[in-house]
Description:
mainly beta; 22-stranded antiparallel beta barrel; 5-stranded mixed β-sheet; globular
Amino acid sequence: MFTSTRLRGVAARMVWRLPRAAGAAALALAAALPLRAQQPAATGSVEGTVTDAETAAPLAGAIVQLRGTGLGAVTDVAGRFRIGGVAPGAYVVSAERIGSREATARIEVGAGAVARVELKLGTAAVALPTVVVTATREAQRLGQTAATVGVVGGAELARTKPTHPAEVLGQIPGVWVSVTGGEGHMTSIRLPQTTNPMYLFLEDGVPTRSTGFYNHNALYEVNVPQAERIEVLKGPATALYGSDAIGGVINVETRAPSAAPSAEAYVEGGAFGWRRVLGSLSGTRGADGLRADLNVTRSDGWRSATGYDRQSGTLRWDRRLGAATSLKTVADVTHVDQQTAGASALLRADFERDPRQNYTPISFRRVLALRLSSALEHRTERSLLSLTPYARYDDMDILPNWSLTYDPTTYDTRNASIGLLAKYRRELGWLGARVIAGVDIDHSPGSRLERAIQPTRDGEVFTSYVENDTLYDYDVTFQGISPYAQLDASPTERLHLTAGLRYDHVGFDYATRLAPVQTGKYRRPADASPTYDHLSPKLGATYEATEALNLYALYGHGFRAPSEGQLFRQGQAANTIDLRPVVADNVEAGARGRLLGRLAYQVAVYRMDVKDDILSYINPDGTRETVNAGETLHRGIEAGLGAELLAGVRADVAYSRSRHTYERWSPKPGVDYAGHEVEAAPRTTLNARLNWTPRRPAGARLGLEWVRIGSFWEDAENTHRYGGHDLLNLRVNAPLGRGLELVGRLDNVTDARYAETALYTAARGEELAPGMPRSVFLGLEYHWNR
């Protein structure tokens, strides 16, 4: 654990290293800046605003473009934009924004003159997003994005008010998020269900955790129900993200301050002692916009000793520093206190007889997460400079329930971070080309203190414990410097090409306070400083044939360094310091578009080869060893469909079919899994929704959702299979007038018995973590706008 002396030492090292990191960023950016192109003397400009067609409120973050020129801008918090350097002539100007229909207008630009225009955006009738931000860390038209991107919009989040990220992320094809207790989760995107660091979690583009200190539960440190939107970028699709971004990137965007003063309050109660209060205050005055969000949640848990408390707050301050410069500062704090840290699986007989029981009531998880970031953006007519320094602090004290039967311990991990995300984008003025260059810097000192425990057991139930010897006590610092460059070009108005390259230089400085141990169940490595260097290329193309058909294809190479726990928490593995990094090669192709203004679709096929995957090999006695896994192959097809069937009635379907196999893996002599399917990898996932939105009262909705998780193997030997499950959920939104709205939902309508996770071992047999039974939740929301 950090003492005050150690904290002062960490702070001193961070201050000493920050100038060197900033210098590296400056050199990388300076090398990427092309000479400023000369602008034609006789040019004009386009200025205007983008507003909501129904409320007339200004819309920030809308992409405005002059068709056929490559010129464009993004609206500020007041909905304003300016496009300079426009040659005289007639143009069509368009505006697009997530969740809105495109708006266009015809304008005439004269030499030395300003053409003014107002564009009004209405609500989109179909779900396919037109604008995304994650692929390039700024707003970009989806039609120009050579990647598979799924979006859960702000309107859906506001209506659903999810109690867990799984309730909305399953609406994206190929995304399966399972519940592990409270808001804990495991994620599966083009990979099997896993707790390994294969996904990058972001808030407003800033990693919620350091690469060196990965936590698969990262979304419980983000205020999801009050977010603006969630974007999922699948696979290693872009040079702008490095280690961890193999399966995909999940980016949660915070809500911008409202133009006029506003307030929201939401109170909810439900099954099993569920209670939640959400509150928000927002407004803009002059150049400053402010939003404050609060989330206080409490649940007794539907199973024995599975209570959950969460308090989190988000403060966002947007400031205009001039017509071309803006500053966005976001501060977050999250505290989680959870009984039973994990899914708490049951033997098959108890799963069928009494799923509410809990073998591990002594387990717990306590988390404190703090984040602060400040994004400075400066735009000119043909360039964007973005600098985002950030700081983080994470503390987790845990008694994990999943290892009580074979590795009972309790541990505390802490880490602090300072970092910088620096990016420069410049339009080159030929073939619609632009270059994006930048560098990511992360300096994260941390520690682990882990002790053995001696639990007392009554049958299958662990009832108490006492602490024993200290097993691990070490300091470790993660450092990463990762420059990247990407070139985008449009040889024709419809064809868009992209090529990128990223270089990751990452490593750890590890120092143990305990003597190294080379034998036994808890081996400890000596002091070490492993480093990893890797180049990751990306290539892609999109072709906008028509509004009804946008084709894209890409190749992406991904890289993931081992995490702190995999390297230095050795266990009984022979050697973890020399674990090789995971690498992945992904190829995919897809099509998306709109038909007849009523139907949106997106289809993608992919093949991803993963080499040296880091997995936990389960020995016959149930113990685990961290090892490299040779090679795995992941193939699949994903399809999304949204259609307005009748006035006010729409259907949405997210479907995936995949196959995940071990191509090479022989973890022990005489054990060979080559040709076997990877466990915890359903071949089929499906999410289908039918929603009715009557004309009156405005904002009312009645929705029915069908969720299907297909069967999957429970073990690498492929001897036991979980049969899959189907769930039905019902949701209702009922405006009551005077700013009041009733929000209700009925989860698991048929009261199906199902498992969130399923595992088979020779030592324990089949273990299943039961999912929540039929549950009712009811909330009341109040909106106030001036």
